[in-house]
Specification:
12 strands, about 30% strand, seven-stranded mixed beta sheet, about 200 residues, single chain, mainly beta, five-stranded mixed beta sheet, globular
């Protein structure tokens, strides 16, 4: 397992960092469906299940005991704002995979979050070097409205794929739409290709 890795997301190295149809914001807008969940860290867990060799469940203490890494990345929302220069801290997705060992037939994941919220990802995007489970941004713990205690951060895709209040990752052979995808959002969500909707 890597210790205290610092990764610079390749999108931050682009000559033009704002994708088509986006505008830059310095504030971090609060957007989500439903209310902000109240999370009890004493009963909280993060689970990995489905097409894996070793199902895994970590409580908050176990997760925070893992080596933390940082990812410098931009964030792009499907609602057209982009927030540059974020430093996320947490556990890299890649650092958890040796413990989970996805099976060869796993090609997608369905991310499960509080209140039954879900979103889907190709396995390749989930396993990107700059994807991580983040508990802080720019040196401050995430606020509840931004996903405390933990959100998945996948910088290469629109921000709805970076699920707030994440609780589980289900490994699947076939792509399965999540909440927003069932309601018209694109199955992948690449901001550089403007994959906003079906």
């Amino acid at each position: 397992m890597r210790e205290n890795v610092e990764i610079v997301s390749e999108d931050t190295l682009r000559k033009v960092r704002i994708p088509p149809g986006q505008f830059e914001t310095k504030k971090w807008p609060i957007l989500h469906a439903g209310s902000t969940p109240r999370v009890n860290l004493e009963t909280w867990s993060l689970s990995f299940f489905g097409l894996v060799e070793t199902p895994l469940s970590l409580n908050w203490t176990e997760l925070r005991a893992m080596p933390a890494s940082r990812v410098f990345a931009d964030m792009h929302c499907v609602t057209r704002w982009s927030m540059l220069d974020n430093t996320w801290e947490g556990v890299l997705v890649g650092d958890l995979m040796p413990r989970v060992r996805p099976r060869p037939e796993a090609k997608f994941v369905l991310v499960h979050a509080e209140q039954g919220w879900t979103t889907n990802l190709p396995l390749a995007d989930f396993l990107a070097d700059d994807a991580l489970f983040a508990w802080s941004r720019n040196g401050e713990e995430l606020a509840p409205d931004h996903g405390r205690p933990l959100r998945l951060v996948v910088p290469k895709l629109y921000a709805w794929k970076s699920a707030k209040w994440v609780r589980g990752i289900e490994f699947l052979a076939d792509d399965q739409p999540g909440f927003w995808e069932q309601n018209g959002y694109h199955m992948r969500g690449d901001p550089w290709a403007e994959q906003r909707f079906w």
